[in-house]
Design brief:
Blueprint lengths: L2 E3 L2 E3 L20 E6 L10 H8 L4 E9 L7 E8 L3 E2 L2 E2 L6 E2 L6 E7 L1 E8 L5 E7 L3 E4 L3 E7 L5 E8 L4 E2 L1 H6 L3 E6 L2 E6 H18 L3
Antiparallel strand pairs: 1-2, 3-4, 4-5, 5-14, 6-7, 8-15, 9-12, 9-14, 10-11, 10-13, 16-17
The structure holds 5-phospho-D-arabinohydroxamic acid and zinc ion.
5-phospho-D-arabinohydroxamic acid (PAN) binds next to strand 5, strand 13 and strand 14.
């Protein structure tokens, strides 16, 4: 099978096999990025729990990016493996970003595990979580910050498919963070207002922490 791209006809490298559940996944011709807990400094609300867990500095997620073509109309496929875990009561998550080209949407496809995409509109601040799991697809519209969250006990694996023009803007969110957090409350993933959660944590200290099940 061939594909015409401009004046080139590409006849190979259009198909890729992958197994994200393999003990040591490798994806030929894709670029690997890894994020350890130390790369997420300032992202979790519970700073004490973060510092404690930093002693182990676990790998939080890996993403392979496969660019079969680099033209304006081409697509990138990201293959994500997000580990299970928590910092305090907050589930492990990806950094999260807007696309530099704000109009660029993205499609996520759940492959295994259980989790959510946290979505937040840049202008209205409106946010929601959309389930991401096997046989689930999530559409991330333009102008929407998105973060993957693993609420299960096994790795969450997924694909994210987006335009080569999209680009990633991490800076805007690193400064203000998402307005909501997804925390484990009595064994249930619960979406809370981040600033209220932070205030609750700092005001109630250790008593509140044990009430929240840490
Ligand atoms: C995904 C993400 C992936 C990792 O491929 O890049 O889940 O998350 P961060 O990029 O926020 O660290 C995607 O949304 N690409 O656009
Ligand atoms: Zn994205």
């Amino acid at each position: 099978m061939g594909r015409r791209s401009g004046d080139r006809i590409l006849s190979d490298a259009l198909s890729l096999s992958f197994d994200l559940l393999a003990p040591e996944p490798e994806i030929a011709s894709a670029r690997l990025g890894e994020r350890y807990l130390s790369d997420l400094n300032g992202y979790f609300v519970d700073e004490d729990a973060y510092i404690q867990k930093l002693a182990e500095n676990p790998l939080v997620y890996r993403v392979w990016s496969w660019e079969a073509g680099s033209g304006e109309g081409d697509l990138i496929c990201g293959f994500g493996i997000l580990q299970p875990g928590k910092v305090g009561n907050e589930f492990f998550f990806t950094k999260g970003h807007y696309h530099e080209w704000r109009e660029a949407a993205e499609i996520y496809v759940g492959l295994s595990g259980e989790g959510y995409l946290l979505l937040e509109h840049e202008k209205s601040g409106e946010s929601c979580v959309a389930p991401l799991a096997v046989n689930r697809i999530v559409y991330v519209p333009g102008y929407t910050a998105h973060r993957t969250i693993n609420t299960g006990n096994v790795p969450l694996t997924y694909l994210g498919i987006y335009s080569t023009r999209a680009g990633h803007d991490y800076g805007a969110l690193a400064e203000k963070q998402f307005l909501s957090v997804l925390v484990d409350r009595d064994g249930k993933p619960t979406l809370l207002d981040r600033s209220a959660y932070r205030t609750q944590k700092t005001q109630k200290g250790d008593n509140q922490r044990s009430e929240l099940g840490e």
